[in-house]
Amino acid sequence: MHYTAVSAVLTAWLTARGVQAALNGYCPPMGPVLPPPTSPHTDPGFDSAAAKLTVNLQKLTSGYNSSAVSVGVMSIHEAAPMFEFHHSPQNFDPRGVSEVNSDTVYRLASMTKLFTVLSLLRIDGINLEDPITKYLPELRDIHKEASAQDTIHVVDWDSITLEALAAHQGGIGADLAIDLVNFPGDWTAKGLLPADNTTRLQCSGFFGLRPCNRKDFFDNFGKRPPVYAPFTTPVYSNIGTTLLGLVIESVTNHTYQDWIQQSIFDPIKMNRSFLSSPPESQGFIPINNIDWSVELGVEAPTGAIFSTISDLMAFGKAILSYEMLSPVRTRKWMKPLASTSSISTLVGAPWEIYRTNNVTKDGRMIEFYTKAGDLFSYHSVIALIPDYDLVMVALVGGPEVSGATTYQLIGETSTALLPVIEAAGKAKAHNQYAGTYTDPSTNSSLILSLDDGPGLSVTKWQVRGVNVIETPLLGESPAIPPRVRLYPSNLSTSNQTAWRVLFDGSADEAAAEDALYPWDQFSCSSWSTLDKLVYQFQAQDLFIFGMTEEDGGDYKAIKINLPAYQVELARVVE
Fold first, then answer.
1. pLDDT in tens, 208-225
2. Helix segments in 69-198, DSSP class H
3. Which range of residues forms the domain containing residue 388?
């Protein structure tokens, strides 16, 4: 389904600038540094950026004579996609469409795993910390098939949780059966592998053989030794998601297909998404293609779904809008669970999470929550960017494209659009929050502004006539006053929203500290400095904005409450 690591194209894109000096000295907390823009496509620079992106994508796909490409971008705050691009090749199989669009069906391959895990989470009472043997106790007996009864040859199923399988941390084998005698060039015939007179398991939907069924799995997977002990390191495994599909069927008393349909497709109205081959006339089929209708049998939960750009943008929007899971469960689900050998790559359940600090002007770290898929001629990626409430989707099919192509499409799209979307967020924040706040009765005042850095810049902070920024609250006063930034905390009521202040040194100071240690950006430790100074149980870094609703539904700050200082400052009307 997804056999290779992140492409060299994506790796180069993520690391093009290397690690800059602690993000120019700023160290914002992970997550949004300003509220996401609600109308990003209306930014003055958006149309020109979208036009330039279209030209770049046209150049990228100009040589694809037999391959189709579809790309879509959507904000969860807007009803329609903000950007789409489609490339229709001149050569195609007449069984399918001749011109691709947002409703053209592609195979998703391993992106299916995202649907499998989400549908599992939507089952009441399921605990991902439960061992898989709680739901599939027959796994305890398949060790009898192993060539030796020891920890090297027998999988410790009782130690493998549902979450471990969802996040590829079970240490189990990748697939049920891939028989090398069926590969082109027959390695056994060439003498590379010894002849094997035993009966081979002649099933594997991935290679066009007979799809494996449940009996095949429980009769034969015990022959496969573990790769690692559980929770040692991520090992991409299609079988892990296969088992989660069997858990779904065991707990719900529905088929896997029926549960996906009723728990995800129907609520989101994904009317052009399918769990088996849809009508050929709805899809893009590469010329002379034999992959379109390949069935995966018991491994369907790893890669069976067919869908469209339009349906997948609705799917991503439903996740980020908390329509599938509660806000707290969604935030918990969209977090890393393991690291990899790549400094920019983390693993979730089943997210493939990529981190970069070179796609926005403020140079901060942003996480892309993705799930990719590769199966024969078809390749897919969905990327959710929670910091901006964005969904990006790339679907391709044909002989001239690969998994690298989908990541390159997402990279090109992100590089082109995120800077203007960031600008749209800054413009909105300027209207909502920037300006002067005062309380003449206590001789207190604040000035908040927007610049190229992350969050809001606090350029003046005076309480009862004292300059807070230059006042040493702990230790000696620094030679250079710190740079003070304000960031949202994701805590709000109908008319209030809470933010937190961070104090940063200069870029040179951060670089000098980082030079002392072998760890990149070691000086960036904002997560350990928040909420440290407290007076009467209220943190000095807590700012609470009082908000009022304006015509059109937007909210605007009218005052700031500083609980620790026991002052409230009104916004000066300009």
1. 557 788 887 888 888 889
2. 112-121, 162-166
3. 8-119+300-424
